[in-house]
Amino acid sequence: MSSTESDVEIEIEKKFAVSDQTSAILKSYGFKVVQREEFVDWYFDLPAPQWKFCLDDCWFRYREKKVKIMNNWGWRGAWQVKRGRKGTRDADGMTTYEELQGKAAKELILDLLSEVTANESIDSEHKPNSQYTSHDIPHLDGGEELVPFARIETFRTSWEADTSNEFSGLKVDIDKADSGYMVGEVEALCDGISSQEDVENEKEKIRKFVDLITREGESDAGATTIGKLEFALMKESPDLYNACINAGVINEPN
Fold first, then answer.
1. Torsion of the alpha carbons at 23, 36, 237 and 100, rounded to the nearest 10
2. Whether the predicted model's global pTM rises above the 0.85 cut
3. What pLDDT does 6 receive?
């Protein structure tokens, strides 16, 4: 079953380097903390060295969020897909992805997987990397060929501005991964039927804001700041990281 435009969100995002001044700068532009959360992201693909999906800029992710249920804390997860659009990555690191969650994401994963397995022999008995076996690895019925290639714990602080603000509609996330790596990202979401003009307008709004906050933080808005996943791959899976660089689905830092 294919996903419909109503299932899809378009995520437009630009990452930036976080400094000691970032919180004060965001406050100076009228942004306030709206949420703090903790979650774990698992990324999946076919066993190495096939990596069919991420090398096509299609990322299968299972996100587990820490939530309070009654008086106890627990974890609640959902499958997600981030799929690159034409011209996904701009030279300055701005990205545009189609994003699906929950049932629509699971259906798309299984559809894409069935297309590959119909034409290729996949080792469904492949064992996951030993670094993940101490965890409860998420399982997708019908997706037994998938194995994890990254697991990232994140503490996130989200900021937004009032509707009267010039930059309302933008969300700023400040993430700290379990590796200690920190990164900021400014994002806007459009629905799946948004025009290219709408997308470009959001891009310019993001660029303007990132330019302002990084200039005050004395960093380069035009520099490519890598995300948590790129950092994890660079440190833990250099073969996959280099394959993604060569495939043009992630940008090298500059």
1. -110
2. yes
3. 58
